[in-house]
Amino acid sequence: MLDALKFFLFVILLLVTIMLNQHVTSKRSAELDLELLWQIQDTKGGKYDTSAEEQIGQSAEDLVQNLSIVYVIPNQTLPSGVYTALEQSMVIGSLLEEYNDVNTTWVGETDWIYRTNLSCLAEGYRYVLLTFHGVDTFASVYLGERHLGTTENMFVRYRYDVKDLCDGETQELKLEFRSPVVEALARAKDRSLPIVPTCPPNVYHGQCHVNLIRKMQASFAWDWGLAAPSMGIWKPVRLEYYSSALIRDLTVVIGEQMLESVEQWTIMVGVHLETGLSSTHLNGLLTFKIMYRSIVAKVLQVDIWAVLGVPLADESEQTLSVVNQTDINGELLVEHRLTVRKDLVDRWWPNGFGKQALYSLYVRWEDEAVNGVKLPNPDTMISEKVIRIGFRTVQLMQDPKPDGLMFYFKVNDVPIFAKGSNWIPSSILPERSYDVNYVKFLLYAARDAHMNMLRVWGGGLYESDHFYRMADELGILIWHDLMFACSMYPTDADFLRSIKEEVRQNVRRIQHHPSIAVWATNNENEVALRQNWYKTEPNYTAYYAQYVDLYVRTVLPTVEQNDRWRTVLLSSPSNGDQSIKELYIATNPQDPLYGDVHYYNYFLDGWNAAQYRGGRFVSEYGFQSFPAFTSWPEARSYGHAELSQLINHRQHNPLGNEPIFEMIRYNLPLPTDTSQSDYWPELIYLSQLSQAMIVKTETEVYRARRLEHGTMGALYWQLNDVWIAPSWSSIEYGGTFKLLHVWLRDIFAPEHLIAFVNERRLLEVVAVRDTLTPADELWDVEMRIHRYGSFRPVDRHYESVRVPANSIGLVARWDVYGHLAKRGLHPADHLVLLYAYRNDTKQRTHQPQPIAENFALLDKLKHIRTEQRVQPTVAINVVSAVCSERNNLTSVSLEVSVSVPALFVYLQLTPENSTLKQCQFSRNGFLQFQPIRTVQLTCIDPGCRNKIQARDITVRTVNELLVR
Asked: Signal peptide position in this chain (predicted)?
């Protein structure tokens, strides 16, 4: 009986979940996914007639160029891409291994064909549309002998009327793809004004003219990524059957109002209806409901959920009669206002400020004919759609100040310091960006590091619906670039027409998500034009005119027409409103007194806090490091010279590895003996430590300057990666955390204690609170001066500070160097460890736990004098290890013991544990000034097969490099 009850509850919950989270796919708006049994083939022709002996020593490129092979890859499913299919069929090795980024260049330069068999029957339906939600990129589409049309923009949805072809007969559906590399090259010819840059730097090993085509700009290579000129069907293909109207998108504009002393939310709903591809008269009824899921009971430890309705302030708002005509494209926008009392719903808040309350907005279209006459298939004249919405306000504030304009986000009338990162596509192959589990992992990693904002960068993708749903659930605000980056772009009529449709479709699809905070039309194109990045100065007037045509006259108004809920910025970085006053191209788009800035420095000492000034909002900054030694799949088989060559090949920064080496030289002993087997493991460790210190220092200066400089945002570059390569990321491709990402849990903590040596050589200590209650708190701050070689502090200093809610408090500007001099102590031998405690007037019965900890270095580590350079004995003890077979999550508790203080203890699993995935240490790269420290290790262990032991963990410290 109990099992039957649980099963019944499960079925009910499953049905509710389906209704609330996806487009209904019954006969009311029937959709058939064409995801199975596609065949992919290249178009070279010829026959396989080369003997095995003749093939030996020939590359795949040679074989294709010989026209000796036709690659036929059967039984493919969607979403799909040519590179993925060739990998799965073992025609090529993994694109992400060794030198396959250049070895597989031929793939992107070849034309390919996708085909499948299709049988459809239009009987009983007025419309049958074949809809491609994403085709990458240039394809001619055929059904049977009929040419349906062509595609040229991977971000655009294409629809074709196939009703008269749906007669029950089986026909071939075929897409003939043209190489995007060849197409881009063809479009570059005979242009009087070149669209620059024409090619990426040679170090990228990339392709040219990506700015002439509407494709993920990074797919032709970037400074952090490989060239992979993808082709394929990267989003669903569906047959859509209906007889009246289809609800394609729902958009919302949510605001606040006071009506007869009652506070209300207003929801202006935009219902985007479609009637095939031509104008049609519509007569019907729209029905609106707002619902939410709630736990109503608990039976035998099983939560019982119910779907409850939110009453509208005016019951008449629940329905709307529609009598209207769709336009020549078969589209009609119907707007309707709903009102809800504020006390009946909860607000949606960013991560760290409150809960993420989400509600389901249900809209139903029913044609008037359903009730007017008896129909054989009335359900075909009904369409339904459900989206999730959040009740919140987001304002981008640009208040005047004596020296410029502020620039910050206010959510629900609360100023928000934006803490976060920049998001690039989760894969260089667009079809893999739909990996739900990996996207979830990355977004959870951002949430757990206390981030409240991610910037979707303009050289990537308009992300999957799952990405935005997860951002809604986790409270991660999205700064969303449109997909233009680091380039000039053409403005011929066809290009602008395609752009307008791209922006219109994607803004409508994404717009309802409460996580979307702001749009920016491009990444770095204003500053590139003003600062002559691409040698545009001789033709500045012409390039300026193109800039205005594209962003001011096309992209900006198209976004505003489809989203009246948000601010649209013209670029990032930009001076915001000031750039508009300066006719869209500011004299200095990086002015720290306006808008947002991107700041990179590669040769000044990044560990030195005194060099950072910041701006109102720093939307890009960061530094490179190398992925962990064990992350390189070739590391075990490659010798030092081979691995060095591979790492240099994947280093796409035109400056090479020198900035990484230079920052290490400034502060740490740099390994120089390349003959040692530990050369690369040590160098990688030091690069990650240096990156973590640089981003830590810079971020903490920005948080500390919230009041002094008006800095209200810090989004470092970048969260994730697309392959194992030197880059600015905090998370390696595949999910391994670099030291930086482990440190971010403290760097971005809502209650934090910041300490650094400022430009006056004073130890500046600042208490930070991003929490809203209580109104203020009294913190006690302890500063301990330690010798590097001793567990016991040589001195203590105490301060108290009252810290306001959602603000900062200055603890001290302490002349620590003068203090040391009076005591005859040398700064190079000492550091400061800091601890913050809540001041509790009640009698304490135990040692209080610090609410925040930090450290401050008083000199460069390489300057530590000989007598303080001690070599600790480090021991690892596995205290406990548990693996859950339900989720394959292994959790291991470790004790790290040291004989003397250890500097920046770096823990890493050995390569023999390669079957373990997404392994993370709760602490890593830490200072250990106590004999024993506990660290948690978690991994995904499929099948719970591994038993982690102490010998599986390697340890490195800076000490061992200092004592050599």
From this structure: 1-26
Contacts of 499 (CB under 8 A, 6+ apart): 214, 550, 554, 555, 558
Q: Which helix (H) or strand (E) holds 808?
A: strand 807-814
The CATH number assigned to the domain with range 436-744 reads 3.20.20.80
CA distances from 615 to 33, 396, 479, 708 (A): 49, 16, 17, 11
**Could you tell me which of 719, 165, 675 has the C-alpha nearest to residue 426?**
719
* Helix, strand, coil % in the chain, rounded to nearest 5: 25, 35, 40
Contact criterion met (CB below 8 Å) for 574 and 519: no
DSSP 626: P
Beta bridge partners of 339: 266
- CATH class, range 30-45+69-239: mainly beta
In the predicted structure, residue 121 carries a pLDDT above the cut 50 = yes
Q: 20-31 in b/e burial notation, b at 16+ Cβ within 10 A?
A: beebbeebbbbb
On whether the CB atoms of residues 885 and 941 are closer than 8 A, the answer is no
Helix (H, G, I), strand (E, B) or coil at 798: strand
Neighbouring C-beta atoms of residue 847, cutoff 10 Å: 7
Locate the DSSP E strands across 839-900. Answer: 852-857, 874-884, 889-898
- At 109, phi and psi to the nearest 5? -100, 5
- Tell me the C-alpha distance between 417 and 709, whole Å: 13
- Same fold yes or no, 245-389 and 436-744: no
DSSP class of 68:
-
Cβ(550)–Cβ(491) below 8 Å = yes
Which of these is catalytic: 526, 620, 764, 777?
620
Catalytic residue among 87, 366, 502, 524: 524
Please check whether the domain covering 874-963 is classified as CATH 3.40.50: no
Tell me how far apart the alpha carbons of residues 750 and 353 are, in angstroms, rounded to a whole number.
9
Beta bridge partners of 607: none
Mean pLDDT computed over 266-283: 98
The closest of 23, 97, 103 to 63, measured between CA atoms, is: 103
Spatial separation of the C-alpha atoms in residues 863 and 869, rounded to whole Å: 10
For 906-918, the pLDDT digits (tens) are 999 988 877 788 8
Name every residue whose Cβ is closer than 8 Å to that of residue 22 and which is 6 or more positions away in sequence: 386
In 121-260, where does DSSP find H-type helix? 180-188
Active site residue 620: yes
Amino acid at 551: Y
pLDDT digits (tens, 9 = 90+) for 933-952: 999 999 989 889 888 999 99
Q: Reduced to 3 states, what is the DSSP secondary structure of residue 189?
A: coil
CATH for 245-389 is 2.60.40.10
* Spatial contact of 585 and 541, defined as CB atoms under 8 Å apart: no
Q: DSSP class of residue 736?
A: P
Q: Is 658 a catalytic residue?
A: no
CA distances to 202, 299, 480, 534, 679 from 646, in Å: 16, 58, 34, 29, 15
Order of strands across the sheet that contains 793-804:
793-804, 776-787, 830-838, 852-857
Domain boundaries, the chain: 30-45+69-239, 245-389, 436-744, 751-868, 874-963
Distance (Å, whole) CA 598 – CA 720 = 18
Task: Please give the model's pTM, rounded to 2 decimal places.
Answer: 0.94
- CATH 2.30.30.90 is right for the domain spanning 751-868: no
